[in-house]
Amino acid sequence: MDRHLLPEQSAELYVLDVNTGDRRLVYRSSDMLFEAPNWSSDGQWLVINADGLLFRLPVSGGTELEQIDLGDVPPINNDHVLSPDGATVYVSAQDGHIYAVPMSGGRPRRVTNDHGPDFAHYLHGISPDGASLAYIGLRRRGDRQPITNVYLIPVTGGADQQLTDDDFPDDGSEFGPDGRWIYFNSERVASTPGHAQLFRITSDGSTTEQLTSDERVNWFPHPSPDGTRIAYISFPPGTLGHPPNVDVIVRILDQDGIRDLIHLFGGQGTMNVPSWDPTGNSIAYVAYPLGGDTGDKE
């Protein structure tokens, strides 16, 4: 179901330089709740979703959003990625399937297989060569907690490759720049439900490594284009899942450890998808301040 802004709330799209900490407001709306910025491969555009639709706007900013024609794709959620060549956008629709849509217009194509009405696909990453998609497969189990696992599928369609096979909640599966590792968040080491940490798994599923281990709840790892840094959303201790409208921290993990980039009011929708610019110097994110506040909580 589409989210909506709360009374006196706005959605604010920022670009932040991870080296200097400088940030710039690109777009603001007090009417439309938009989410999950992607960066085009040429560095000129940001792509966001809102109201089940997809839009783009120049990184330099603007007053109007340009709608991307998705053809007859059902309303989409905030899981979308762009192909490395910029020619195709892949979207997760509310019917539970992933679709490939030409950016220049044309007939969309369903990528995913039909695993029954209780299975849904949530897209998060594309391989550096543009050949494979990484998604979270969610299987509903009546009143019990759904099972979520990491899968791969060719962008042309075909057989699914399941990388994880357990009852631990997983999410945010995204390829690293070498194509060997898929980064994701999981509750597999949680002592209490909802406490996700960051992991990575090889694309053949043979090796899994834990990347964070702290008191906070960590989601959506986004490796930088050169693979040296990971940007992610850190929720307060005790958070269940990745809810909207909470105080969160955008953090960087690199060889020197963890550092805070920005404190903001956001969460769900802030940075769900690959959000690095092509140079690896900046990220894009969305804040959702209330009552005339800015997105900066510092």
UniProtKB/TrEMBL annotation:
Protein name: Biopolymer transporter Tol
Domain of life according to the entry: Bacteria
Chain segments annotated as transmembrane: none
Family matches, as InterPro entries: 6-blade_b-propeller_TolB-like, WD40
Family designation: Belongs to the TolB family.
